[in-house]
From TrEMBL:
GO BP terms, alphabetized: negative regulation of gene expression; positive regulation of type II interferon-mediated signaling pathway; protein poly-ADP-ribosylation
Domain of life where this protein originates: Eukaryota
UniProt protein name: Poly [ADP-ribose] polymerase 9
GO cellular component terms listed in the entry, alphabetical order: cytoplasm; nucleus
Record keywords: Glycosyltransferase, NAD, Nucleus, Transferase
Amino acid sequence: MADDYQYPVYFECDRLPEEQIRKIEKYFRIHRKSNGGDCGPVRNVGHKTYSVAFKHQKDQQAVLKKSEHVVNDLVFTVRDSLEPCTSSPVTTTSREGTAPVQSPQSSPTSTPPLSGEECELQLDSYLLRYLKECPKAEKDLERELASLACSAKIYPMEGKVLVRSLDRAGAVDEGRSWKAKVDKVFEGYLCHYELDPQKVKALFQSCSSRQTTDEVKVYSEVGMAVVVGECSQVKARVKDVMDLLESTKQRSGEKQTSLRRLGEAKLRLLWKEIEQSLGRDYPGVEVTQRDAGQLAIEGPVEEILKAGNWISEKENLVLKRKVSDMSPLVLAFLRKAYGDSAGLSDFLGVDDEVEVELRDTDLRLFSLSADKLDNTEKKLKEELREIKIEVPNFSVVASELREKLESKTNEMNQGQYRAEVMFGSDSMVCLLGHAEEVEELSKAVTQFILDQSSVESAVHVSGAQKSASSSLSELNTTVASYILCDELQVLVCRGDITKQEADALVNAANEDLDHCGGVAAALSKAGGPEIQSESNSLVKCNGKIPVGEAVVTTGGNLNCKILLHAVGPVVEKSGGKERMLLEKTIHSALNLSETMEFRSIAIPCIGSGASGVPVNVCSEAIVTAVKEFGSQRGRSLSRIILIDNSEEVVGAMHVACERLLRGISIENHEPLRGATAGAPGDGVHLEIIQGTIETQQVDAVVSPMVGLDPLSTRVGNSLSNVVGSQLTGRFRKEAGHETQIGDTVLVEGLPGLPSNAVFFLGLIPWDDDQDGTAVQVLRLGINNILTSCESRGFTSVAFPVLGAGIALNFPDSVVARILLEEVHVFKQTRDSRTPLLVRIVIHPSDEESSEVFESVQKASQLTGFKNHVHQTDQVKSEYFDTS
């Protein structure tokens, strides 16, 4: 085996321990670190002299070309012979604090001819890159060499400089003198390799506006920073960083105060454990509660950081739930009845293991136990009711009914506020409060109507049933309307499909036509037993219905001519093709209706229930199919109704219509709370939503990085969890060796992601400077991404809250301001009128960013922002007019 390694290199060191030898062997085997490859063991071949032999000569030569090698704190150079070189070497760059390194491989590849016309120098690759990239440095080098009657040509990829003498040939001594002067020129430059993690971080943070000049460059290498420039400038930069770290270290022993905002509910939930555990485990830290759910931590900086990390771990264990179907009217009633979160908690009888947060727009529960959350939410929904009743001849009987209900509510609310009655501008009466009292009021309204008309059928609750306990959600409300080709109308409605009138109603069916759950069960129950009976007969005769197909049965008691059963995909069985299969399903339903020459069809959000397809994927697929169908002429269908009783689902369908149909004539309707408003036909559309970046169905998403590590942030890791190991490999391939901090790396076609591409953006951590390098790099990155989207023809891009995580540590307010400003600047300077959706995605666990974005937008008053943002927790939108 020893004969396989025939290409040795030699280096000198004091006696090396075994552990260090093993590290050096491993270092030489890693090409990206040492330029080496397959090699044998490190051997001691003489006094303070060691060797390692390579299997391939190309690896040996590549190692020899590297001016210095760094393994932990050991810095050494290598040569190709056992004996030290006795000729005058060419001096290359060195680490600060050591004598310049002299290495044989940096010498000319051959002794200059007597003419002294040409000399080839092997120099550090980072120095060559610096000289090539910095115009000022390159001009200074040209000027110095010209004073020696020389010129130089730089070859960064080959790691060499070719220096040519412009004088006529001279004697040998003159050739050596010329060469020595050239050496001295290159001695004026320095490459400082820094491995200490704190110093590496500080060097990148020190890249102020000086980084844009030609004095000093800081390059990123795996696990280290390389500072390159003129010797004096490099040493000054390194000294500045050392001084900064030293002063920080001195301050770390002083007492500091750090504020953390957990939110009032989380703080109440965790306070006892925080107080006890921090007092026991971190005795040097004092922790106190402040207003607005803030926690003050006082003590030495290092102890504060440790305590803060511990608190973050505990905070991550807290489960949060937003109580669904809680209308603004019910929330207002709860505030009036119980005042604040503490009063509501007392009423619900929850112990210290559940905290309630009553907000202006929603009600949230916090606990460390999912079961506790389930029980509390169940109790809330059982205890509260909201009923809306339509009263015939309301204008005639309004005063009498009002007097009757006010009398009853006054009686109910003696001692404690239990119920409330609200009269609308139309014929609707809204009853809300505790279930027992609301049911009593409902019976009173029903009896009043019967007494007035003497006919029971005069009672119309929610426009359909004769029962007075119907919910507000049963009203079929049009949210938006769109006109497609040949006057085909597309409606987005919130309501109950079982009460919808249309020629054809679509059922979200399974392959067995077993209508046992969700929309299928509701339609089957409302239509009567003949629907399931006919379905069973179909399956018995023809077998299971394939995914993507549709069949017809009677509609029974439903308000339709036929019930159309469309079989959509199930996530576990679709192999990632859910969207394609769902589009096929919708096409089948529409084409079958067209064959039967129907005029109208109502379609629910197929696939979004038990089938497990994400709501946004379902919405996009359904609207895409509708748009394609609507582009055909000569249809019998004139109305397509997209309907669901879930606010979230209707909001998603509305957003999809805005994106895909907004270039078509749009009729204005009152926008649904939680959805975007109508968008213009072109321009920049800015949308702020809650969600996760890895689920965004856009042309491209953005992933921030610390330095050039794609897995250094939460977003990068979330994408990696979906894509797998391919992510880092594809990133490295696209990034190459020339990528710097602030550059973007575009990787397209990553498997598992609904987006088509990912922009990886290299950033540097927050430096406490509102206009410092970190902010400038962030601004440049955002602008580069937006410009790249336009040049590549992308129509949509999703940004996370860039840099606001623990890795980069930007304040939310800074990120919000920069993102909104850069999108606005981009809008003002772009020439194209092609629509571009810019989506800012706020993670569901990020409670503060949504409010921060809203407040920053209001405070900024940027010209071109149209202030019709819907104040919701799910979606917020801005539209820019590029006219």
